[in-house]
Structures are given as C-alpha cells and as structure tokens.
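Go through this chain.

——
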Amino acid sequence: MSEKTASLNFIEQIIEDNLEENPGLKVHTRFPPEPNGYLHIGHVKAICVNFETAKKYGGLTNLRFDDTNPTTEDTEFVDNIKKDIKWLGYDWEDREYFASDYFGKLYEFARKLISKGLAYVDDSTPEKIAEEKGSPGTPGVENEYRNRSVEENLDLFERMKNGEFPDGSRVLRAKVDMASPNMLLRDPLMYRIKHEHHHRTGDEWCIYPMYDFAHGQSDAIEGISYSLCSLEFMHHRPLYDWFIEKLEIYPSRQIEFARMNVAYMITSKRKLKKLVEDGLVTGWDDPRMPTISGMRRKGFPAAALRTFCDKVGVAKRENVIEIDLLESCVRDELNKTTARVMAVLDPVKVVITNYPEDKVDEMVAVNNPEDESMGSRIIPFSRELYIERKDFMEDPPKKFFRLGPGRNVRLKNGYIINCTDFVKDDNGIVTEIRCTYYPDSKSGEDTSGIKAKGVLHWVSAGHAIKAEARLYNHLFTDETPTAHEDRDFMEFFNHESLEVLPAIYVEPSLKEVSPGTQLQFMRNGYFCVDSTSSPEKLIFNQTVNLKSRYKPKK
C-alpha cells in the first residue's frame, strides 16, 4: 500500500478508484437536512464529510432541505440550519435547494412508475399494511389492491393530488417484492395524503412524497455523484437503486459511513425536541444541548468541531467517541485564541492592611502568552481584593501552596502577600482574610528576595464587576442513554447538569464584553459570554475546564 493510499479514508479511496476509471467525473455531494429541528453533533460530521470531500477533489456541495413532511417543518429550522452551516465555515454558494422544488417532478416520476405497472394506490389502513408486510422471517402478503389496473391507479393518484380523499385513506406504494428479506423492499410507501400547509408551497399540495422516494430522486435531479450518508441508510440503498433503475435517471452512488456518536450526548432530533418541549432545557440552543447552536452558545469554536471530526475520521463501523476528545479539541483551540482574564467564582475578601487605602496600582497583564499580537491590558490593584474561597485554608497541609496563616503567596501580575489573620462569622465561615504585602515585590519589578510557591488570581473589590456564571455537566448520567432497550432515555437525564453562580466577580476590562466572546478565566476554565448577556447583567457560560482528561488510546 502506498503512503498516499494509506492516508485516504475509505470514501476517498472509492472516489479515487472511480476517478481513475472516469477521469471526467465531477465530485458533487450534498447535505440534505430535514427542517424539523436544530442540527446536532451528528450533523457536524455529515457536513464536514460532504463539504470537505468535495473540496478535496475540486467539486461542489449542495444544501438541500428535505422538506417533505409539512407537519413538523418550519422556516425557523431552515434559517437556523443555514446559520449553523455558515458558522462551521462552509458555503454552498448559490446551490440552495428544497425537495419541495421537485414536487412536480416527483409527481411525474410516480406517474411513470404507475404507468409501468410498478406502483399502485392502496386503500388499506396503516395497521393492515404493517400486518401484511410480515416479519423478517415471514414473507409478506399481496393485498387486493396490488393488482389494480394502470388506468385505475393513475386516476386514483390524480384524485389523491386533487384533494378528493381524507388523510390516511389511501397511499401510493411501489410494487417491488413482498417476499424480500429486506423489509424496506416490501412495497414501500411512496406518497401519503396530508392536508397540511407547507412552509414553502402553501396549500398547493395535499400529497407528499415519503423520504425514501424523494431522497434518491432529488439527488438524481441535481446530478449528485456521491450521496454520502450515515450507516442507518445502508438498508435503504437497494430501494434507492431500484427507483433509479426503473425511472432510468442519473445514478447517484450512495456511500455510508458511521454516524457521530459521542458519549453523554444524543443525536435524535425527536428526543432533543422532547427535552425542549418538557422544559428540561431552555431551548434548542441551551448550552447543555448537543446542537450546533447549543455548542456555539456554550463557547465551542467552529474550528474545534472541524478538528474533532478530522481526528475521529471516517469509519465503516459505529462506535462511541469519548466526550473528552471533543473537549480536548475545544481546549486546544481556545488556548490559542482566547484572552486570559481574572474572575473569582466563589469570592472571599482579602484586606491588605499595610496598603494605603486611597492607592490604586495599575498592573500590566499579558492577554495571551501564546499570542503576543493580542497585546496586554491594565488591571487595577487596591487595598481590598477578592480571591477564591478554596485558595485559603485555616490549617493548610504542607503541600498546600496557596494562602494560609503565616504563608506567602503571589497575586498574579501583582504583589506577594502574607496572611496575618482572618475573620469568621457566627457560623464559622471565613468572611475576611487579612494580609500584608511586600512593597518591593511587584510583578516584573520584584527586588524583595521573598519566595512564594503559589500564584493566585484575584480582582480588586472596588473595581470588580458582579456577574453570573453558569457551570455545566453532562446532560445525561449514562454514556449511551439511548442504548438501553428496556429503559427510557429520560431516566438518565442529569437534573444537576446546570449550576448557577449568581454572584461572581470579574475584572473591570470585561465591562463592555460582547455576547459570544470566548475567554479563559485564569485557573477556572474557559468561558463564553452568553447570548442573553448585557452590560447591566453579565452572564458567562462555562465552556470547558482547563485540564484535559483525554488520553489517546495506544
């Protein structure tokens, strides 16, 4: 195997083999979401695979909305899907299509199959149809409507289109093979009656094509050379090929790859919708949700999601990806791109007793040591500060290198201080820590000779801005909440997945920070300014912690 071949994934290998046989073949892919919900982590992989594959071979990618079910679809979902794809960094240019663009053509395709004796109108109830299909080990039963004449079927199908029949009273089925071991080939439904208002075609149609009929034919109409989709559609491929063969249309090639399954996340829009409707999350863009909009609001960078998909690769077998790998990609990206700022999440006051009451020092802080071009900022330093409560202990152990009675510690970008005393309330809670500072120990100008092993972040009490922080945990308590056949996935919902800290303090440089801004809170993790944040009430969403738990498998 050549080095070049070894670096290809199996889809690219198929394409390169095809290009050797057909050098003029254009690599044309598509991403075909249903506008019935927001895109999730699984869609991120599908988007990356389709757009990146076409890009690699100088091809094109279409965006096509599979809007064949007016009951569940909405322009809100269309708009958010487009926003998500553009945010990820991909552009379909002028190639935006809808399955509804092809309703007339699909109707004619259906009439063609009827004329060939390959489709028929069935008056059976849904229950009867399901019963007659049999089981994987038992052949189906051909019912009385299967052998209607071509003329009668054409007449009934046209009357279905004209709205003469109520919902559910008739369907159009393909006449394939009621004894096929593939249940999807046992005379599948092609059209059903739905007197529903469509978000694009209005009330023009009252019959709508089923996904399995619209999907492959839409690919053919657009000249899609490679229909790249997840493994769940593998058993649908023989049916798509059957339609293409009988209709004698452009033969798109379907290639299936493993979908993106990430631990503690679910990739079912129906299940995500239930979380929204039951009020367990605040909406599709709740930062705990595995939706693209939720991850964006949480602070995940688009580049990190693309890197994650690249690292996971394109496989033929389903597996569950560690969520720590995803967070590691997020962390690596944010480490390069975010400013370091100071925020105290659980504040306790420090009073520097020998520091002048009216004095304010200006401390210079580097914004990001990984990127000098991000410059520096000025932070005010005063007599009264806030530090993290966990950074002080009354009786610290030997290896506790933070603040305790008689101990020295350096304040980041500031002075070295020494704890001399502390004050408790009636409940034994420390309310104030008293310290002295070494005037000649200023960071960058230290001539004191004093040693301090620990370095703490802090904010000036008189200059700090009060804000809210939202800390997140996994949305589910089980790595694979939908994998338990005998249990409802809702049993694993983590009711402690959100912790709100209503009174944190952040440095004054964040007063005018814009929603969506990503930051590193020193020693506390990466945070993002929430979309609902304002100067009157700053809200920060925790993105990921500072340390990675991900360990690559050997």
